[in-house]
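Hi C.,

You asked whether I'd gotten around to modeling the 332-residue construct. I have! Everything is below, sequence then structure, no commentary in between.
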Amino acid sequence: MTVLVTGVAGFIGFHVADRLMARGESVVGLDCVNDYYSVQLKRDRLAELQRRHGDAFQHIEADFADDDALDRAMAGADFDRIVHLGAQAGVRYSLENPRAYVRANLAGHLNLLEVARHRRSSHLVYASSSSVYGGNDTLPFRVEDRVDHPLSLYAATKKADELMSETYAHLYRLPQTGLRFFTVYGPWGRPDMAMWLFTRAILAGEPIDVFGEGNMRRDFTYIDDIVTGVVAALDNPPPDDGQEKAGGSVAPHRVYNIGNNRSEELTRMIGLIEQACGRKAEKRLLDMQPGDVRDTYADISAIQRDLGFQPTTSIDDGVPRFVAWYREYHGS
């Protein structure tokens, strides 16, 4: 079986493609390899997939937000299921370049819905985000919670993706699963994420910027657990049975949280990085940044009930693994 994975040069896309091919699937990977962050890191991920899996992996370099380019790219590709992970990520960058989010996350999502509809795909799994919970102050965040008050354009585009997917599930009975990821970290991660930024600065002997005066909590989720959830979702398309599903839809559309089901203090994560690096951080305590939320915490009861999902990696294990990979990758 062949799966289309968008954003395959990205952090989560790389790991999902790797897991799928490790169990014998073939992957068509779609990624335009843009320069939001290090193009070299993205090329290295693609090269690693090719090294590990050879002919089972095909990378197509095209922009899925460009409908004509996408049609040309997909013309010769054979696949049924889709894992749509490609997006313009990052809360803070959405304040600087909002049009990039409208293009990639709105037009791009619609284009993938159209691909899935016209190919009659058996299942489309797509990436949403914990950011949709916005200013919710009731913890943990539940998929049943209202998410009508996003605090960033990034969050607004992800909620819009969920709404478009609900429409396509209703109109065309297209089976879909949306996954709200909570603070994903691990080897081959993203350079714009706090764990990477802190590790780089601490190893370089530079100060780290700690927003929210250090009084923030995150549901840090290790990449292997995220991938386990993505693959479990892919293997279990929602039935078109008229019954209410996770997220409230009666169409063939589910929405799940994927998190570690623990809300950890940011300072504890920093302490684990310091321990793994063997040196203390010089902290610059700063105010909350626009668009950020102070706390995140995933209620994962829906995905536990439906798919048997259970995270297994604590930050005590995951953070040292990330730091070890970082040092090896950078030769430091």
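If it helps when you're writing up: The first helix runs from residue 11 to 22.

Thanks,
B.
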